[in-house]
Every structure is written in structure tokens, then in C-alpha cells.
Amino acid sequence: IEGSEHPAKINMKLSDEKGRSMIEATYGNIQGKFKRQVRWSGLKPGIYTLSLEWEGEMFEKQVVISENKES
Questions:
Q1: Which of 44, 59, 61, 70 has its CA 20 to 30 A from that of 4?
Q2: Can you tell me whether residue 23 is helix, strand or coil?
Q3: Phi and psi for 55 in degrees, rounded to 5?
């Protein structure tokens, strides 16, 4: 996400097909570009919804996990 010049808070949530929250995180004082890696380990294969709430707007993206190999 590339954002505004003033610091903002970002709420991230990953939900399964039934709407159950699998991962939740809040990042504060984000300014400019925002980039984070999310660890998918422990999640079963399926379709998930990644939601980001930022400055009063909601962004959603479907994520498909086909298999989860742990190294």
C-alpha cells in the first residue's frame, strides 16, 4: 500500500471461507509505503480473504492457499 504523508493506522485481517478470523494485526504510525510479509504456516489449503482497513477505507483481496510446505 502506498499512502499519505501523515501517519496512519492499518488493521489487517485474514479470514477463512466461513468468515472466521485466522490472523489479525494492527500496524500504527504508517507513513508512505507499507509492505509486510505474512506467514501462512499452519493454515489449511483453501480460499481466504485478506482485509486491510486504512484511513477509513476497506481493501479486500482473495488469497488461495493450495498447499502449505514448512521448511
A1: 61
A2: strand
A3: 50, 45
- Look at residues 61, 17, 63, 59 and name the one whose alpha carbon lies nearest to residue 39: 63
List the end-to-end C-alpha distance of the chain, in Å, as a whole number.
29
Q: pTM for this one?
A: 0.74
User: Which is it for strands 8-15 and 21-30: parallel, antiparallel or unpaired?
Assistant: antiparallel
**CB neighbour class for 50 (10 Å; exposed up to 12, middle 13-18, buried from 19):** middle
Count Cβ atoms below 10 Å from residue 8 Cβ, excluding itself. 17
Q: Would you write out the chain's pLDDT as a tens digit for each of its 71 residues?
A: 555 567 788 899 999 999 999 999 998 877 777 777 878 778 899 999 999 998 788 999 999 988 755 54
